[in-house]
Amino acid sequence: MKTICIDIDGTISHYIEWVDSKTFGEVLPHCAETIHHLKADGWFVIIYTTRVDKDEIKNFLDKNNVPFDAINENPNQPNNAIGGKPIADVYIDDRAIQFDGDWEGAYTKITGFKSWEEKPEVKQRPTKEYSAELMIADFSQCMEMHRHYDSLNWQITKFAFGEILVAIGACWTVYSFDMAKETAPELKWWAIGMIGLVSWLYGILSIYTIVKNRGYFVRTSRHINELRHHAIASKPLGFENSAHFWEDPTYPKVRDWKSTQFFSLYMLVLLLMAISYLTTFSFVHLLNGFCYWIGWLSVLATIGIWLIIVFTAVKEKF
Q1: Three-state SS for 203?
Q2: How far apart are CA 240 and CA 247, in angstroms?
Q3: pLDDT at 72
Q4: Domain segments of the chain: what residues?
């Protein structure tokens, strides 16, 4: 049977400044379970501590389900060794230094010694294998997000186009119906104006959503480029990626005026310009008059709002 001596303060429990024999630190995680495993494997467990009140020690260990066989003594020790330190095969102590036969080295260990609770916490660096797996998983997830944002942009754009075209069709239907009946001309212009205003507001909201989503799309794309750049920087496959495909982490730009996403915005803005002119025409017509410059002013306002959204909704540098 093998014997092990285990310290209490800083080993079984957290080390705290001395208060009294009844005060102990909190038991460390997995301590009781580990000592139970040792007992199951046949180890004789001795609690070896500077504390002398064995009753208080026993109460503390029993309360925290920490098994032991003896306290500060080895009952199996030979008679001619009684009174000395308990004989054991292994000693566990937070302030112990394992002597390896080198006293010069021991001097360095002694003068620079700090217990594990006195040392600053050292964060373990991830392994290369973990980092590689993380990069692979990250790249895969980012590609899915990239496709999602691109698809979402087109879905919003198509829905906005459809909504505006339906609004234009509804306005034309109201206008044609009333022209045939001439029942309520004022109601006609009021209905056309309200339909146009709601459509215009929704179109502006769609533009804002598209531009914000463009920001997420660009940020994800840049991260993908960064991952690819680091992955092929050492030319692991023997080629240089001369095309620089998906490699520059500063691209794409948020405001890429030649991109297909921006071309969809141009077409959407053109429709909103027509809607704004139509809406202004309808409301001013209710006042029995119309000034062309008011219609064009609403068109310029639409362009201005679009530019404000493009330049303020998302920053170029994240």
Answers
A1: helix
A2: 11
A3: 93
A4: 3-111, 130-312
Query: What is the residue whose two structure tokens read 């209710």?
Result: 286
The 10 Å CB-count burial string (b at 16+, else e) for 219-228 is bbbbbbbbbb
Contacts of 141 (CB under 8 A, 6+ apart): none
Residue 264 has what pLDDT? 87
Interval 174-214: pLDDT, tens: 878 765 566 666 778 888 889 989 999 999 999 999 999 99
Per the document, the length of the chain is 318
Does the model's pTM come out above 0.85?
A: no
- The strand order across the sheet containing 90-92 reads 70-71, 44-47, 3-6, 90-92
- The DSSP code sequence of 244-282 is -TT--TT-S-TT-TTSHHHHHHHHHHHHHHHHHHHHHHH
Q: Among 58, 302, 297, which residue's Cα sits nearest to residue 199?
A: 302
CB 280 within 8 A of CB 294: yes
* CATH class of the domain comprising 3-111: alpha beta
**Alpha carbon 23 to chain centroid, angstroms:** 42
pLDDT at 236 over 70: no
CA distance readout (Å), 31 to 28, 53, 140, 185: 6, 22, 41, 88
